[in-house]
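QA checklist item 7 of 12: single-chain prediction sanity check.
[x] sequence parsed
[x] length recorded as 319
[x] structure emitted
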Amino acid sequence: MKIVSLFSGAGGLDLGFKMAGHDIIWANDLYSDAVETYRANLGNHVICKDIFTIDENEVPDCDIIIGGFPCQGFSVANTKRNINDERNQLYKQLMRIINAKQPKFFLAENVKGIFSLAKGEVLKMILNDLSCIGYKVQVKILNAADYGVPQLRQRVFFIGVRNDIEHLIDYPTPTHNSDGSCGLSKWIGVGDALSILPNPDEPNTIPNHDYSKYKLRFNGYLGHRTIDPLKPAPTVTARGDDKGGVVVLHHPSNQRRMSCRELATVQSFPIDYVFVGTRSSVYRQIGNAVPPVLACAVAKQFNNYTGGVDLYVGSKLCP
């Protein structure tokens, strides 16, 4: 199906939909480094522009609108989060475009903290708003580790189906769990996931394989936790801004920080996916992304819909 992507960032969600066989026809983000990363890997159909200034007529007709709308206002990592944070209103721009284009489906992604913000009132507001523009909406928290991503990353996925469409979009069934029971595979440990990469201090030609020299601390707080190589990594975050100060996980050796490439691997990006910008910018782009393997698992759920759409299944499918 034809996909329009809003708040596309470095392209993690879009890559997942592409891996599942869909066609991304238009994308938008405001962060110029992320747009250049997207363009280098996914194509020239991305526009670098503030969504508040985008006219609905600029956006092509499509089957699905997807968007991981910015989460900083909602995230539990933001201790000053509140219902009046202007970034919390960006979902209304997503809603504006959905309302204007009336795609068959939409998929929106955000952080788990949105469930508890304002004691659940924000979630109710979003669900009500999306329902009022003509969609049956469901919401669920998915853990990336349950789908083969070497990271404990819980994110909220909203799925909307236009009211005149009878097809139900299910959430993907987990393929992994913590102990490999019930016929599922065991969660992938971060040590195994990173074992394919050489030491970044040794000569190599792998893109983005350099790391922050910020000293290690072990106090249990975000970015200062001991990493167990046998378990999935803690959640990769984008805390910090484009001027620096990002929080970077320890490497599972617990002797240095992860390199940008290692963090991208933890996020399930392929090794040839090249990120553009300074090291801090690249860390930020990776932390903001939806893991492509998780995105692919969700995207494949739309493949069962055949209502007048010629489905193309690409040669590069997700696991």
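[x] summary fact logged: The chain has eight helices and nine strands.
[ ] second reviewer sign-off
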